[in-house]
Amino acid sequence: MEFRELTNILTIAEEGSLSKAAEKLFVSQSSLSQFLKSYEAAIGCSLFVRTSTGMRPTEAGERVLEAAHQIVAIGNNLQNELWDIANLSTGKVSLGLTPFRGSFVLPDILPAFYAKYPQITIHTVEANTQTLEDYLLRQVIDVALLTYPLINKKLPTEDAYEEEVYLAVNRESPVLKRAMRDEETGRSYINFEDVMDEPFILLSKGQRLFTLAESQFEKYGCKPHVIQKTQNPETSIRLAEQGLGLAFMAGSYIHPVYNGSYKLSYLSIGREGLYRKLVFAFPPNTYRSKATMAFVEMASRLLAPGKQVP
């Protein structure tokens, strides 16, 4: 098995379709299809079956994928060690992020990182939390920025930073009349019991902000008036802007544009605020390259203060 062949097979399995895999591998679909046919003919068995939901590995395919993951992981570890010998003069880091977080976090980190380490490439992989944890377990990526606690407890972590979670409120909402100002910090906050009866826009079940919101409702023993649920944080921001309800919003998701063209105010939840911890998670029992740890160190330092929210 050649390394490139294994990469092709793994990508087909991850994407579940030849067209998506070909796009990710920067090859034509016809050439990838021809590769798979030739490879299956050479080993004498099929690796995938086509279903209504995409390409699914056969029993033989599962065995090949299992071996491929191990071989690719060994190859990546070796490459990382060789890059370290070059003392950060070259290298590559595969970074996992959820899509919405990536759109706000990466602009704060990448320019500074590339300025200091121009020869190191950051390859970003965007997916939901469960998929990213699976990628870490299979050593597909080197590190992921995730909300703690993780689903899989086997994954080692390092603290990244704590971010505050706010309530996004339309700037013309009467809710703001109930807000208070901490004279010491200048922060605007509202006690949660003062908004329990308000309509809420929540993210869908399974997303971390939904879990945090649910814990708040349980803490105060109330059944929320959920006027809308959505899978997209951007949608919840837009709906809150229109005054449909209150939305929980993580500090790293708040961009200056949301305080300008968007008609929103962000209130701390209680005088002390409501926080959640973010961590860098790594594959278990594997080598962490100097390039990976250089990125983690810089990202932790740049993100630690958090965003200032007026």
UniProtKB/TrEMBL annotation:
A GO CC term attached to the entry: cytosol
Identification of the protein by name: HTH lysR-type domain-containing protein
Keywords: DNA-binding, Transcription, Transcription regulation
Coiled-coil ranges (or none): none
Pfam families: HTH_1, LysR_substrate
Family recorded in the similarity comment: Belongs to the LysR transcriptional regulatory family.
Domain of life: Bacteria
GO molecular function, one term: DNA binding
Annotated HTH lysR-type domain residues: 1-58
